[in-house]
């Protein structure tokens, strides 16, 4: 068996350097956390030792000359990927980004790729990988001086690096493991079988919960935006049909995490329980006697089937307006839901009804979110914005204007009934708020970006029939709307609206 050589040490140090450098620099310079940077370095050093152990054993069967360049290429690819994510999204790959990728669907992933990755980006990325690969091969094949002093310091350094093992996520295998272990829960395996207690003598015949996508409250004229992006909902508000919550806050900045909160009784205060072990809204509504239905203009399938599909599966009726094949080409405008939602409400023989409607909303690519007839805002109306931002402003505001029409039309389908409609977006987005060149899902490592991603609208629509027999509930809703509101409290609001509470929450 060969003894350890200087090239072995050179490989370990090179692998640790290339795997850790992006994370270390980011958390040292941007996050301002030198201790975390050192621990991440230690974790990557220990991972590099594990890689070397594999190479050492592979030399016994004469595979080292094949595996070492392969490891080098993978490490180079990983380094460039982290660099790209830092440059483009303001952070290396973190748990939130992994949740975003694994929790999305095929259509969103396809649109994301075409929006943020150009041919030039691909070419530059390939060139960067090759350059880093050459640099890695050169460094890893240098002869490290194996003096007694150098080996002593290496041993001390190795012992210190053991303290970084808790940061194993910030290594190549750790991130791969984070993706592999992401799985979609079958919520039917965790039903709570609640006993719902009536808290009111009256209950709405229809409850409609409309879930939007990527709606930044900063672009809503309901909340003071200088472009008229919500004319229909403003008219509903002025007519006394709409309660606009003044300061709603999403529970998270991306879909998968937000759904865990507002679709269950899980909250930041009760986080000692797993989210999937908490009572879900579809089950609570079904236990209250409601026929539940889920209509979605988002694709059902994703890497692991997106999280919304898990909640949809709990409903009595489930209908998607797209097929997996359609999803690859991008979803159709949300008015496609008009062909199924109103007719279901009108024709359903069983009452009462609880209807969930999941929109594509304002998800990128913004231009795909609305028909050409909604090209109302144009780039020349944003002369006060940077040139490269103007198209995004115009198309996003057009998508918001169209979304206003869709939500208003769905609410209007409840007119004349004893009904309540709720609309909100699963999260907002960072629309050039943290940086002049950043328009995407919020970067949770940037406080400004994070706060932007939590800003979403929240409105409650009530019909005249509902208001006339529920004055106390209406007063409570008005009081809630005047204060900061956390979307993770949606189940509690729904329970008040329908006049039922789980027995465990009743007092």
Describe the model.
The protein is an alpha/beta fold and 507 residues long. The chain is 47% helix and 11% strand. The protein has 19 helices and 13 strands. It has helices spanning 6-30, 34-58, 64-89, 95-102, 106-116, 119-140, 148-161, 172-180, 231-238, 255-262, 281-287, 307-312, 324-329, 341-347, 390-412, 447-454, 464-469, 471-481, 490-498, and strands at residues 196-198, 206-212, 242-244, 247-249, 291-296, 317-320, 353-358, 419-425, 430-431, 439-440, 458-462, 484-486, 500-502. The strands form 4 sheets. A 7-stranded mixed β-sheet has the order 3-11-8-2-7-5-6. Strands 1-13 form a two-stranded antiparallel ribbon. Helix 3 (64-89) packs across helix 6 (119-140). The chain is elongated. The model has no long low-confidence stretch (mean pLDDT 89).
Outline:
The chain contains 19 helices and 13 strands. With 507 residues, the protein is an alpha/beta fold.
Average pLDDT level: 89
Radius of gyration: 26 Å
- Kindly report the spatial arrangement of strands forming the biggest sheet: 3-11-8-2-7-5-6
The computed structural class is alpha/beta
Question: What secondary-structure arrangement, pairings included, does this model have?
Answer:
Layout: H1 6-30, H2 34-58, H3 64-89, H4 95-102, H5 106-116, H6 119-140, H7 148-161, H8 172-180, E1 196-198, E2 206-212, H9 231-238, E3 242-244, E4 247-249, H10 255-262, H11 281-287, E5 291-296, H12 307-312, E6 317-320, H13 324-329, H14 341-347, E7 353-358, H15 390-412, E8 419-425, E9 430-431, E10 439-440, H16 447-454, E11 458-462, H17 464-469, H18 471-481, E12 484-486, H19 490-498, E13 500-502
Parallel strand pairs: 2-7, 2-8, 4-12, 5-6, 5-7
Antiparallel strand pairs: 1-13, 3-11, 8-11, 9-10
Helix pairs in contact: 1-2, 1-3, 2-3, 3-6, 9-15
